[in-house]
Amino acid sequence: MHATIRKLFCYSLALVFLNTTTLLKAQSTASTASSLTPPQITSAHTIFLSNAGGSTYFNAFTGGPDRAYTQLLGALENWNRYQIVQSPSQADLIFEIQGIAPATASPGNDIPGGCSPQLILRIRDPQSNAILWTTSANVRASGLQKSRDKGFDQSIAVLVDHVRQLTGEQLSPTEQAAVRSNASTYSKAMIGLLVAGAVGAVIMAVVGIHLVHEHQNQTLTSPTLPTCPTAPACPI
């Protein structure tokens, strides 16, 4: 029994480490994005900001699903890197912002265990509508209204910092730390779910093995039958 438990525990840990390594590798790959930036993004002067909307999940934030558009518009104006125009035909680039909240499944089943709200920014070519680049920021949506709105503000700032990196700007140490922290939000959640699932699987295995072990050690006995009275009262 102990050998089986050890095998299950080792397998669970291997699963956790495998997924952790994959997530960390993805974060490392993202850091090299600036070297692959299409020249059109760095040479552009004008942009049109398009609102691709958001799911009803974003009603949890002040301003609802349109908050991403209005807040990103203000952040881009403050950055003052691009001139924001009123029509796609006037723009060198189209920035398309969308809020999504895909369901996350618990390990080992298809039942949704929560949501992973994200802001997706797609940079498009106005002429062909082709997507030149896509970046995203996770949104921390826990706590009271004030806390949720603060998390949303931080996500918008991270999104703009991603674009700043694409154009070759250097972020301050504080901004770099914020970008790394935002990237790790989803990773930590997934690792937590994986650990919980692994521990749960081990516990269920231990309980199952223990019940089987007890069942095998039980002595099977036939039930005691009542003494049959004198015929003809005794049933045939």
UniProtKB/TrEMBL annotation:
Keywords: Membrane, Signal, Transmembrane, Transmembrane helix
Ranges annotated as spanning the membrane: 189-212
Residues annotated as signal peptide: 1-26
Protein name, as recorded: DUF4136 domain-containing protein
